[in-house]
Write a structure and sequence with these properties.
By secondary structure, the protein is α+β, with helices and mostly antiparallel strands. The protein folds into 3 domains: 126 residues, Distorted Sandwich (Coagulation Factor XIII, Chain A, domain 1); 113 residues, Immunoglobulin-like (Sandwich), CATH 2.60.40.10; 110 residues, Immunoglobulins (Immunoglobulin-like). The chain contains 3 helices and 27 strands. Strands 3, 5, 6, 7, 9 and 10 form a 6-stranded mixed beta sheet that branches. A 5-stranded mixed beta sheet has the order 12-18-17-14-15, with no helix packed on it. A 5-stranded mixed beta sheet has the order 20-27-26-22-24, with no helix packed on it. A hairpin with a 4-residue loop joins β14 and β15. The longest helix is centred in the C-terminal third of the chain and has 48 residues.
Length: 437
């Protein structure tokens, strides 16, 4: 009897502790001054504690119907916010929304609509959508909470152009070149294959294209080997430059910037009217970015150099670089020596691989091109920046594993020698015993 009484007492205590929590989850929270009679999220009625599926980039419309009880509500606020976003302090306009203060007489209802947006940079995880109501004098806050299951963006919004830079300036002389940097990110739920990044100026009918085999989920890639030369006969004025990314066969995203083409300074040398018209470099156009970033601990950066033979004879070109020996290894791909026929163009890529002792900061290097007895050089700024510790830790781990393998091999060799020595000694002892008898 005593044992049954103890069991019943424990049961009642546990029930007293658990029941309020269960009731709190199933019964909507209300205050002594107001009650929320209905909440609709994107048009559907949502009960307190419901699970909601959303994707990056989704708009969330929260419509709340409020009823005033036990007196008038004065200077009341209704708010909604998405919790768990890293950049909430900087993008509060996306993840939070509050109504203006309002008054609601006792017994009356009012519906208020709030608008939120799931940021593209939100992690794919579980988060909370919270709705709160309070007024100036009440001692309590009415709060509703919803579980947000955040997934990647749908196929239409899976790829985003994060950055689109034009160098050296958005104002360019006719006949000169621009370089472009396009950074993209996959916000979708799947890896993407066969992407094409294109920069074009439709009015001038020029474009440059680069492809990528795979862009994994949440992966970011930058394209810097994108060069366009403005035609020498281009009309003066403003032009749209379009960076576009084609992916998933039928999807495309683009971003547009504007450039201004101005007249070239001086008169370009052309035909037989110039004294140096027959020289090796007078009819050669060389296009390259004004700067390049090099990250320590990485496999290096690619620096594109576009060479065009505008002359009437075939020419042999030689590329070289100076000012890199103390901080990077520079290699021209496919070669530093190449031949161009009249009208031909070729892009040579210089790979800059930072040395282990490369110092952080801006470096000045000179890239020279030689044709025959003539040479031209251009000064380029290389910005050496600190890489993440991942590459270094991998290198250190690789070194540790290599030393471990070496030690293991040495130990195995020593063990083999010891075993062989013991066998040899045992054989000699057996021979001595047999000869004794």
């Amino acid at each position: 009897m005593n044992k049954n009484f103890k069991i019943m007492s424990v049961f009642l205590i546990i029930s007293a502790l658990i029941l309020p929590m269960v009731m709190a989850d199933t019964n909507p929270p209300q205050g002594d001054y107001a009650e929320i009679t209905e909440i609709k999220i994107n048009g559907d009625i949502a009960e307190n504690g419901d699970d909601l599926y959303v994707e990056r980039g989704d708009d969330i419309t929260v419509r709340v119907t409020i009823k005033s009880v036990n007196g008038d509500m004065n200077d009341a606020y209704l708010g909604a916010f998405i919790s768990g976003y890293r950049y909430a302090a900087y993008e509060s306009n996306l993840v939070t929304d509050f109504s203006n203060t309002f008054t609601l007489p006792e017994g009356n209802k009012r519906s208020i609509e709030l608008n939120l947006k799931v940021p593209m940079d939100m992690e794919t995880k579980d988060a909370k959508l919270r709705v709160i109501l309070f007024d100036e004098n009440s001692a309590s806050i009415i709060s509703y909470n919803y579980q947000l299951s955040i997934y990647g963006a749908n196929e239409d919004n899976a790829v985003e152009i994060r950055d689109f830079f034009i160098s050296p300036s958005t104002t360019i002389e006719a006949g000169r070149a621009l370089s472009f940097k396009v950074k993209i990110k996959n916000f979708g739920n799947n890896d993407l294959d066969d992407l094409k990044v294109k920069v074009s100026i439709p009015e001038l009918d020029i474009q440059t294209v680069e492809t990528i085999d795979t862009l994994e989920i949440d992966e970011v890639q930058s394209f810097e080997a994108l060069l366009l030369r403005i035609p020498a006969d281009a009309n003066i004025g403003d032009y749209d430059v379009i960076a576009s990314v084609e992916y998933d066969r039928y999807q495309e995203v683009s971003e547009t910037q504007s450039i201004t083409v101005i007249s070239a300074k001086g008169t370009p040398c052309a035909g037989e009217t110039c004294d140096n018209s027959n020289s090796d470099l007078s009819k050669t156009l060389v296009t390259m970015p004004a700067s390049v970033e090099v990250i320590t601990g990485s496999q290096g950066s690619i620096y594109p150099i576009l060479v065009e033979n505008k002359g009437t004879t075939q020419k042999t070109y030689v590329l070289s670089v100076s000012g890199t020996s103390d901080w990077a290894l520079a290699v021209f791909e496919p070669s530093s020596v190449f031949v161009l026929k009249p009208g031909q163009a070729q892009t040579v890529y210089m790979r800059l691989t930072p040395t282990s002792n490369a110092q952080i900061g801006d470096k000045v290097m000179k890239i020279a091109i030689t044709a025959g007895n003539e040479m031209k050089d251009t000064t380029v700024i290389a910005s050496v920046k600190q890489g993440t510790t991942t590459a270094k830790s991998k290198t250190n781990m690789t070194g540790i594993l290599e030393w471990f393998l070496v030690i293991l091999v040495v130990v195995l060799i020593l063990l083999g020698l010891i075993v062989a020595f013991k066998k040899l000694k045992k054989g000699k002892e057996e021979e001595e015993e047999q000869s004794y008898y």
